[in-house]
Amino acid sequence: MRKSKNKKEIERELKKLQANNVTPYRIGSGDRFDISIYGEPELTIKNGVVKPDGTLTAPMVGDVKVSGLSINHAMKKISQKMQQYMKKPIVSLIPSQFRAQTYTILGKINKPGNYMLHENSRVLDTIAEAGGLSIGVFRDNTIELADLEHAFIRRGDKVLPVNFIELVRKGNPLHNIPLKDKDYIYIPSALNTEIYLLGELKTSGYYGYKENMTLSQAIVYTGGYKDTANINKIAVIRGYLNDPTVYLVDLEKVLEGKAADFRLKPYDIVFVPKSTFGDWNTLLDMLTPSLQVLTSGYISYQLFSGESN
Protein backbone atom coordinates (compact mmCIF):
# COMPACT_ATOMS: atom_id res chain seq x y z
CA MET A 1 0.00 0.00 0.00
CA ARG A 2 1.35 3.42 -0.93
CA LYS A 3 2.02 5.67 2.01
CA SER A 4 0.19 8.98 1.77
CA LYS A 5 2.11 12.20 2.19
CA ASN A 6 1.29 14.18 5.29
CA LYS A 7 0.09 17.76 5.22
CA LYS A 8 3.52 19.26 5.96
CA GLU A 9 5.21 17.25 3.20
CA ILE A 10 2.60 18.38 0.68
CA GLU A 11 2.97 21.99 1.79
CA ARG A 12 6.76 21.83 1.39
CA GLU A 13 6.42 20.36 -2.09
CA LEU A 14 3.90 22.99 -3.16
CA LYS A 15 6.15 25.79 -1.88
CA LYS A 16 9.01 24.29 -3.87
CA LEU A 17 6.82 24.22 -7.00
CA GLN A 18 5.88 27.86 -6.40
CA ALA A 19 9.54 28.87 -6.07
CA ASN A 20 10.71 26.79 -9.01
CA ASN A 21 9.03 28.95 -11.63
CA VAL A 22 12.17 30.27 -13.35
CA THR A 23 14.19 27.48 -15.00
CA PRO A 24 16.56 27.52 -18.00
CA TYR A 25 14.81 27.03 -21.32
CA ARG A 26 15.20 23.52 -22.73
CA ILE A 27 15.69 23.16 -26.47
CA GLY A 28 13.09 21.16 -28.35
CA SER A 29 12.24 20.13 -31.90
CA GLY A 30 11.01 23.06 -33.98
CA ASP A 31 13.27 25.63 -32.30
CA ARG A 32 15.39 27.67 -34.73
CA PHE A 33 18.87 29.12 -34.12
CA ASP A 34 21.49 31.21 -35.86
CA ILE A 35 24.79 29.37 -35.31
CA SER A 36 28.05 31.32 -35.50
CA ILE A 37 31.72 30.63 -34.70
CA TYR A 38 33.79 33.53 -33.38
CA GLY A 39 36.24 34.69 -36.04
CA GLU A 40 34.82 32.33 -38.67
CA PRO A 41 31.95 34.23 -40.39
CA GLU A 42 31.99 31.86 -43.37
CA LEU A 43 30.79 29.03 -41.04
CA THR A 44 27.68 30.87 -39.92
CA ILE A 45 24.37 29.01 -40.32
CA LYS A 46 21.19 31.07 -40.34
CA ASN A 47 17.85 29.81 -39.04
CA GLY A 48 18.97 26.24 -38.37
CA VAL A 49 16.08 24.09 -37.15
CA VAL A 50 16.07 21.42 -34.45
CA LYS A 51 14.75 18.35 -36.24
CA PRO A 52 12.16 15.89 -34.87
CA ASP A 53 14.98 13.55 -33.76
CA GLY A 54 16.33 16.38 -31.56
CA THR A 55 19.43 17.17 -33.63
CA LEU A 56 20.72 20.50 -34.93
CA THR A 57 23.06 20.67 -37.92
CA ALA A 58 26.21 22.51 -36.87
CA PRO A 59 29.15 23.70 -39.06
CA MET A 60 31.80 21.06 -39.84
CA VAL A 61 30.44 18.43 -37.40
CA GLY A 62 26.97 17.86 -38.82
CA ASP A 63 24.04 16.78 -36.65
CA VAL A 64 24.40 17.24 -32.89
CA LYS A 65 21.77 16.07 -30.39
CA VAL A 66 20.64 19.18 -28.49
CA SER A 67 17.01 18.45 -27.57
CA GLY A 68 16.47 18.71 -23.80
CA LEU A 69 19.62 20.78 -23.25
CA SER A 70 19.83 24.37 -22.12
CA ILE A 71 21.21 26.77 -24.73
CA ASN A 72 24.50 27.13 -22.83
CA HIS A 73 24.88 23.36 -22.56
CA ALA A 74 24.17 22.97 -26.29
CA MET A 75 26.84 25.57 -27.17
CA LYS A 76 29.43 23.73 -25.04
CA LYS A 77 28.51 20.40 -26.65
CA ILE A 78 28.91 21.77 -30.19
CA SER A 79 32.20 23.44 -29.19
CA GLN A 80 33.57 20.17 -27.85
CA LYS A 81 32.73 18.34 -31.08
CA MET A 82 34.37 21.09 -33.17
CA GLN A 83 37.65 20.87 -31.26
CA GLN A 84 38.77 18.06 -33.55
CA TYR A 85 38.81 20.61 -36.40
CA MET A 86 39.89 23.87 -34.72
CA LYS A 87 41.49 25.08 -31.50
CA LYS A 88 39.15 26.39 -28.79
CA PRO A 89 36.15 27.29 -30.98
CA ILE A 90 33.68 29.74 -29.47
CA VAL A 91 30.17 28.79 -30.57
CA SER A 92 27.14 31.06 -30.30
CA LEU A 93 23.51 29.92 -30.56
CA ILE A 94 21.15 32.83 -31.11
CA PRO A 95 17.46 31.84 -30.98
CA SER A 96 15.55 33.02 -34.05
CA GLN A 97 12.29 31.24 -33.22
CA PHE A 98 11.16 29.18 -30.22
CA ARG A 99 8.55 26.48 -30.61
CA ALA A 100 5.24 27.08 -28.86
CA GLN A 101 5.12 25.78 -25.30
CA THR A 102 1.80 24.14 -24.53
CA TYR A 103 -0.26 22.46 -21.84
CA THR A 104 -3.21 20.07 -22.13
CA ILE A 105 -6.45 20.22 -20.15
CA LEU A 106 -9.09 17.52 -20.65
CA GLY A 107 -12.21 16.17 -18.97
CA LYS A 108 -15.21 18.03 -17.63
CA ILE A 109 -14.13 21.43 -18.87
CA ASN A 110 -16.07 23.52 -21.39
CA LYS A 111 -13.28 23.75 -23.97
CA PRO A 112 -10.87 20.82 -23.51
CA GLY A 113 -7.73 20.71 -25.62
CA ASN A 114 -4.17 21.94 -26.03
CA TYR A 115 -3.39 25.56 -25.19
CA MET A 116 -0.43 27.90 -25.60
CA LEU A 117 1.50 28.37 -22.37
CA HIS A 118 1.75 32.07 -21.59
CA GLU A 119 4.30 33.65 -19.30
CA ASN A 120 3.41 33.13 -15.62
CA SER A 121 0.40 30.91 -16.45
CA ARG A 122 -1.01 29.16 -13.37
CA VAL A 123 -3.52 26.37 -12.81
CA LEU A 124 -6.53 28.66 -12.33
CA ASP A 125 -5.61 30.51 -15.52
CA THR A 126 -5.87 27.25 -17.45
CA ILE A 127 -9.39 26.52 -16.15
CA ALA A 128 -10.51 30.04 -17.07
CA GLU A 129 -8.91 29.86 -20.53
CA ALA A 130 -10.65 26.52 -21.15
CA GLY A 131 -14.06 28.07 -20.47
CA GLY A 132 -14.53 26.97 -16.87
CA LEU A 133 -15.88 23.77 -15.38
CA SER A 134 -18.69 21.92 -17.14
CA ILE A 135 -22.21 21.98 -15.73
CA GLY A 136 -25.24 19.88 -16.61
CA VAL A 137 -28.76 18.99 -15.56
CA PHE A 138 -29.33 15.92 -13.39
CA ARG A 139 -32.91 15.09 -12.40
CA ASP A 140 -34.01 18.70 -12.98
CA ASN A 141 -31.11 20.05 -10.92
CA THR A 142 -28.22 22.05 -12.35
CA ILE A 143 -25.01 20.46 -11.12
CA GLU A 144 -21.32 20.82 -11.73
CA LEU A 145 -20.09 17.81 -13.69
CA ALA A 146 -16.46 18.12 -12.59
CA ASP A 147 -15.14 15.79 -9.89
CA LEU A 148 -12.61 18.12 -8.28
CA GLU A 149 -11.72 15.60 -5.58
CA HIS A 150 -10.08 13.33 -8.17
CA ALA A 151 -8.78 15.99 -10.60
CA PHE A 152 -5.01 16.02 -11.07
CA ILE A 153 -2.11 17.66 -12.84
CA ARG A 154 0.75 15.53 -14.20
CA ARG A 155 4.23 16.77 -15.04
CA GLY A 156 6.24 14.14 -16.86
CA ASP A 157 5.78 10.91 -14.91
CA LYS A 158 4.81 12.66 -11.68
CA VAL A 159 1.38 13.68 -10.36
CA LEU A 160 1.75 16.98 -8.54
CA PRO A 161 0.15 17.46 -5.07
CA VAL A 162 -2.37 20.07 -6.25
CA ASN A 163 -5.70 19.76 -4.44
CA PHE A 164 -8.36 21.15 -6.78
CA ILE A 165 -10.96 21.48 -4.01
CA GLU A 166 -8.53 23.62 -2.01
CA LEU A 167 -7.74 25.61 -5.15
CA VAL A 168 -11.17 26.11 -6.73
CA ARG A 169 -13.56 25.88 -3.77
CA LYS A 170 -11.43 27.46 -1.06
CA GLY A 171 -9.19 29.72 -3.15
CA ASN A 172 -5.99 28.45 -1.52
CA PRO A 173 -3.20 30.20 -3.50
CA LEU A 174 -0.60 27.62 -2.46
CA HIS A 175 -2.19 25.14 -4.88
CA ASN A 176 -2.23 27.66 -7.76
CA ILE A 177 1.20 26.65 -9.02
CA PRO A 178 2.92 27.95 -12.18
CA LEU A 179 2.60 25.68 -15.21
CA LYS A 180 5.40 24.28 -17.34
CA ASP A 181 5.63 23.06 -20.91
CA LYS A 182 3.70 19.82 -21.54
CA ASP A 183 1.83 19.85 -18.22
CA TYR A 184 -1.31 17.68 -18.35
CA ILE A 185 -4.48 18.50 -16.37
CA TYR A 186 -7.44 16.14 -16.13
CA ILE A 187 -10.84 16.94 -14.59
CA PRO A 188 -12.86 13.70 -14.30
CA SER A 189 -16.64 13.48 -14.38
CA ALA A 190 -18.56 13.51 -11.10
CA LEU A 191 -21.15 11.26 -12.73
CA ASN A 192 -18.66 8.44 -13.22
CA THR A 193 -19.41 7.51 -9.60
CA GLU A 194 -22.73 6.39 -8.21
CA ILE A 195 -24.69 5.77 -5.04
CA TYR A 196 -27.50 3.26 -4.59
CA LEU A 197 -30.81 4.19 -2.97
CA LEU A 198 -32.97 1.19 -2.07
CA GLY A 199 -35.90 0.17 0.07
CA GLU A 200 -38.99 2.19 0.96
CA LEU A 201 -38.42 4.98 -1.54
CA LYS A 202 -40.63 6.26 -4.33
CA THR A 203 -37.92 5.65 -6.97
CA SER A 204 -35.22 3.15 -5.96
CA GLY A 205 -32.10 2.67 -8.07
CA TYR A 206 -28.64 4.07 -8.65
CA TYR A 207 -27.94 7.79 -8.92
CA GLY A 208 -24.98 9.91 -9.97
CA TYR A 209 -22.87 11.00 -7.04
CA LYS A 210 -21.85 14.62 -6.76
CA GLU A 211 -19.40 16.30 -4.45
CA ASN A 212 -20.59 16.79 -0.86
CA MET A 213 -23.89 14.99 -1.44
CA THR A 214 -25.80 14.32 1.78
CA LEU A 215 -28.37 11.70 2.75
CA SER A 216 -31.30 14.11 2.78
CA GLN A 217 -30.36 15.45 -0.67
CA ALA A 218 -30.14 11.92 -2.03
CA ILE A 219 -33.58 11.04 -0.64
CA VAL A 220 -35.02 14.08 -2.44
CA TYR A 221 -33.63 12.80 -5.77
CA THR A 222 -35.70 9.63 -5.38
CA GLY A 223 -38.92 11.61 -4.98
CA GLY A 224 -38.99 11.03 -1.23
CA TYR A 225 -39.71 8.09 1.03
CA LYS A 226 -42.92 6.07 1.24
CA ASP A 227 -45.39 6.27 4.11
CA THR A 228 -44.26 2.79 5.13
CA ALA A 229 -40.61 3.85 5.56
CA ASN A 230 -38.86 3.69 8.91
CA ILE A 231 -36.77 6.85 8.63
CA ASN A 232 -35.43 6.58 12.18
CA LYS A 233 -33.02 3.82 11.20
CA ILE A 234 -31.79 4.36 7.66
CA ALA A 235 -28.77 2.20 6.90
CA VAL A 236 -25.83 3.54 4.90
CA ILE A 237 -23.60 0.66 3.83
CA ARG A 238 -20.06 1.59 2.85
CA GLY A 239 -17.52 -0.77 1.35
CA TYR A 240 -18.06 -4.14 -0.28
CA LEU A 241 -20.73 -6.41 1.14
CA ASN A 242 -18.60 -9.15 2.69
CA ASP A 243 -16.84 -6.61 4.92
CA PRO A 244 -19.07 -3.52 5.19
CA THR A 245 -19.21 -0.53 7.47
CA VAL A 246 -22.84 0.20 8.34
CA TYR A 247 -23.97 3.61 9.59
CA LEU A 248 -27.45 4.06 11.07
CA VAL A 249 -28.91 7.51 10.51
CA ASP A 250 -32.02 8.99 12.10
CA LEU A 251 -33.35 11.03 9.19
CA GLU A 252 -36.21 12.38 11.26
CA LYS A 253 -33.75 14.12 13.60
CA VAL A 254 -31.83 15.44 10.57
CA LEU A 255 -34.99 16.93 9.06
CA GLU A 256 -35.92 18.48 12.42
CA GLY A 257 -32.48 20.06 12.71
CA LYS A 258 -31.58 17.98 15.76
CA ALA A 259 -28.76 16.08 14.04
CA ALA A 260 -26.22 16.83 11.33
CA ASP A 261 -26.94 15.56 7.84
CA PHE A 262 -24.93 12.49 6.82
CA ARG A 263 -22.27 13.04 4.14
CA LEU A 264 -22.32 10.30 1.47
CA LYS A 265 -19.40 8.87 -0.50
CA PRO A 266 -19.25 7.25 -3.95
CA TYR A 267 -20.69 3.70 -4.06
CA ASP A 268 -22.55 4.05 -0.75
CA ILE A 269 -25.73 1.98 -0.48
CA VAL A 270 -28.60 3.76 1.26
CA PHE A 271 -31.30 1.37 2.47
CA VAL A 272 -34.60 2.68 3.88
CA PRO A 273 -36.39 -0.18 5.71
CA LYS A 274 -40.03 -0.58 6.56
CA SER A 275 -39.20 -2.27 9.87
CA THR A 276 -36.36 -2.46 12.34
CA PHE A 277 -33.44 -4.86 11.99
CA GLY A 278 -31.20 -6.30 14.63
CA ASP A 279 -27.94 -7.30 12.94
CA TRP A 280 -26.07 -7.34 9.63
CA ASN A 281 -27.49 -10.69 8.52
CA THR A 282 -31.03 -9.45 9.00
CA LEU A 283 -30.22 -6.27 7.10
CA LEU A 284 -28.60 -8.24 4.26
CA ASP A 285 -31.68 -10.47 4.00
CA MET A 286 -33.83 -7.35 3.67
CA LEU A 287 -31.39 -5.73 1.24
CA THR A 288 -30.83 -8.65 -1.16
CA PRO A 289 -34.13 -8.46 -3.10
CA SER A 290 -33.50 -4.77 -3.83
CA LEU A 291 -29.90 -5.44 -4.90
CA GLN A 292 -31.09 -8.02 -7.39
CA VAL A 293 -32.90 -5.36 -9.41
CA LEU A 294 -29.59 -3.60 -10.09
CA THR A 295 -28.62 -5.21 -13.39
CA SER A 296 -25.46 -3.22 -14.19
CA GLY A 297 -22.44 -5.50 -14.32
CA TYR A 298 -20.21 -2.64 -13.18
CA ILE A 299 -22.37 -2.07 -10.09
CA SER A 300 -22.25 -5.75 -9.18
CA TYR A 301 -18.47 -5.73 -9.64
CA GLN A 302 -18.02 -2.71 -7.37
CA LEU A 303 -20.26 -4.06 -4.61
CA PHE A 304 -19.15 -7.67 -4.49
CA SER A 305 -15.55 -7.80 -5.74
CA GLY A 306 -14.02 -5.74 -2.97
CA GLU A 307 -12.52 -3.18 -5.36
CA SER A 308 -14.75 -0.22 -4.66
CA ASN A 309 -13.02 3.12 -4.44
UniProtKB/TrEMBL annotation:
GO MF annotation terms: polysaccharide transmembrane transporter activity; porin activity
Domain Soluble ligand binding: 103-135
Family to which the UniProt record says this protein belongs: Belongs to the BexD/CtrA/VexA family.
Protein name: Polysaccharide biosynthesis/export family protein
Location relative to the cell: Cell outer membrane
Database matches in PANTHER family: POLYSACCHARIDE EXPORT PROTEIN GFCE-RELATED
GO biological process: monoatomic ion transport
Organism in which the protein naturally occurs: Sulfurovum indicum
Superkingdom to which the source organism belongs: Bacteria
Cellular component GO terms held in the UniProt record: cell outer membrane; pore complex
Topological category with respect to the lipid bilayer: Multi-pass membrane protein
Alphabetically ordered keywords of this record: Cell outer membrane, Ion transport, Lipoprotein, Membrane, Palmitate, Polysaccharide transport, Porin, Signal, Sugar transport, Transmembrane, Transmembrane beta strand, Transport
Positions of the SLBB domain: 195-272
Domain Polysaccharide export protein N-terminal: 21-93
Record Pfam families: Poly_export, SLBB, SLBB_2
